[in-house]
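Hey all, quick one. A colleague (J.T.) asked me to put the iron/sulfur cluster job into the tracker so the inputs and the structure tokens live in one place instead of scattered across chat threads. No bug as far as I know, just bookkeeping. Sequence used:
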Amino acid sequence: MPEYTRLIHNYLRHDKKFPHVWCPGCGNGILLGSLIRAIDKTGLSKDDIVLVSGIGCSGRLPVYVDFNTLHTTHGRALTYATGVKLAKPSLNVITIMGDGDSMAIGGNHFIHAARRNIDITAIILNNSIYGMTGGQYSPTTPYGMRASTAVYNSIEQAFKISELAVTAGAVFVGRQTVYNAKLLDNLIEKAILKKGFSVVEVVTHCHVQYGRQNKLGSAVDMLKWQRDNSIPVEKAAKMSPEELKDKIITGILVDKDLPVYEEEYEKVRERAKGLA
Amino acid sequence: MPKRVGMEVSIAASEAVRLANVDAIAAYPITPQTHIVEHLSEFVANGELDAEFIPVESEHSAMSVCCGTSAAGARTFTCTSSQGLALMSEIVFIASAMQLPIVMILANRSLSGPLSIWNDHTDVMLVRDCGWIQCFGENGQEIFDLTLCAFKIAEDHRVILPFIVNMDGFILSHVIEPVELLDQETVDKFLPVYKPVYRLDPDNPVTMGAFAMPDLYTETKKAQDERLKASKPVIEEIWKEFGDLTGRYYSPIETYKAEGAKTLFVTMGGFSETASTAVDMMREEGEPVGLCKIRLWRPFPFEDFWKAVKGVDTLIVIDRATSYGGPGGPVASELRSALYTWEDAPKVVDFIAGLAGRDVAPGDYKKMYQRAQQRIASGDIAGYEIYGVRE
Ligand SMILES: Cc1ncc(C[n+]2csc(CCOP(=O)(O)OP(=O)(O)O)c2C)c(N)n1
Ligand code: SF4
């Protein structure tokens, strides 16, 4: 067994949760590998990590790994995670959400968690569709693309998750494709180590729902598309909006420091105690 | 003469909504309701249905939108299941209080947790007291028929209340059954264009969703209760009219082989078909059993129920939801209190069965029957038993 496979196996719940529910070729598995490698590099112990997920194909991810895991309700991962973090700030809290999970039904929680700057790492699997329920359009389905609730193609504009996160105040925002798994490993590692609300938008493929409805080919074809359409943020800075149309801007979009919620909260408690 | 065509029950349900010529639909996908939403969005997109299909981000928004469209005078439809209903429940209560005749199909699915997508009635019991008219269908034809009737009943000026048609998830929503559709002309005659009594109209402004101080709230609630109760004869009248039109008659309580029965099984929804097979089987073996099906759950049809169970020794209730730590499953608890003042009331033996898609086959009814005899013999009929638990 090669070393990187062995490493992943150290973190899986072998005896319980396999086979997994994902379609063969789904990008969710690549992200799972990436996440494990990133956590391994941070040197954090399994018991210090809490993975919180919502509902969707993406939401199944924590079920397979040997961390503290919390599989919650659709759209609410960040609210449960906020509770976990405030109750036990020493834990490293990571949420795994889908684009529907985080941007549609749970969109409100997302912008407020970013604004509040609570120390949570939000990993969003953006496959541009509601995968689990059968390919209905999501807030990230691009204009003009087909979904089972948009059989004559979507007439809405899509959210750009990372840009939304930047605007909402997240202190660390990065985007990467599952094609570039190594770069994704690094990005996730940085996001986990960052203090404050950090967002990793993982551009991935759902070849079964989104790909099939839009005739985008196999999982491999969609991975190639990711490869051919990614532009590092540094390079993108020198390009025009026209040139960047339909491209995936990858890398770190924002890395700044702002007061972190739990620390501020602790200060308030200290102050209040002093008054008593 | 209309033909019976094999189709998925979700498609039959969507056909009913299309034929009802709704004006507005707002719904959010959730298993096992998704096929209905998808079909409807397709009908709207390709012009087969001239309606607004309003995209939403969650069920809470779906029901809120429905309240808005209905208040503006549009014939409005939505559908959901389980967690979706839980999330929209805040607004579900608003719809009935504001007398908005929205029609909802609820593809029944268990509530989390543990997370399950399978069928039982825990979702509908969550909103038992929401003030909507609530009925159950047991097969595809019934879902089609009851959905069409639901619009007519909900919008009748003697009623004007929202309506839930319960359809068991998967065991109905995803199966293919022969269904006889109606043509548009027939439906249009049966279900004319919706004429709201009150609606938001700039020329005749009204206030909806007003605040009530303690001196008014109780009166409002009494009026709401009276109105729901008063819908029953209208429901029966419209089901009768539908029967005269199609030959398919529906009643609040229906029985099967109840004549001469000493024991009646009591079921709601899709389980009723299996229960009738079980009754056939047991009758052949000489057991005096029959079946009582509750079609209309709200307003609860007391008189019809009393008539159906008069002279029977035992009712075996199949409850498909739990009232943790309570007196019994929600159905049995109601039946017991409905019978409380009766001198010679039948004994009510309650089984909670078929949770989250657990199969209840005809043989299981026989086992429950035997178990009921044991429970009666040992005097242990209070409370409930959760049937078929693997020890
Ligand atoms: C309150 C509620 N509404 C609807 C659903 C049904 N549902 C389950 S997953 C899902 C969408 C999943 O899409 P996304 O979040 O993009 O994740 P993916 O499956 O693509 O990973 C929906 C609508 C639900 N579980 N709960
Ligand atoms: S439906 Fe799409 S997102 Fe879900 S497991 Fe399959 S490929 Fe992945």
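Adding what we noticed when we looked at it: Residues 253-386 of chain B form a domain with the Rossmann fold fold (CATH 3.40.50.920). The CA atoms of residues 96 and 131 of chain B lie 6 Å apart.
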